[in-house]
Amino acid sequence: MKQVYKITYPTGKIYVGKDAIGSARYFGSPSMDVVNEDFSRLPDEVRRNYSVTKEILWESEVATDAELAAKEVEMIRKFESNNPAVGY
């Protein structure tokens, strides 16, 4: 199952990505340096107990890799996740 997903971090920022196999364990690959820097600014109680959510925005069993890539770009633009103030 091919999917485009949105990860929401406790920082309020998001990451939009794609997964060609639909793995429940895959949470993308944002820049860990940037994520860690943002996490360092969170209150201690948030850094010690937090949740990261994964929302499936779109999925298909028949889409081509090109269609998956195009849908990812569409969702990145829709959610503005390439804006550093919004996403990773």
Automatic annotation (TrEMBL):
Biological source species: Eiseniibacteriota bacterium
Protein name: GIY-YIG nuclease family protein
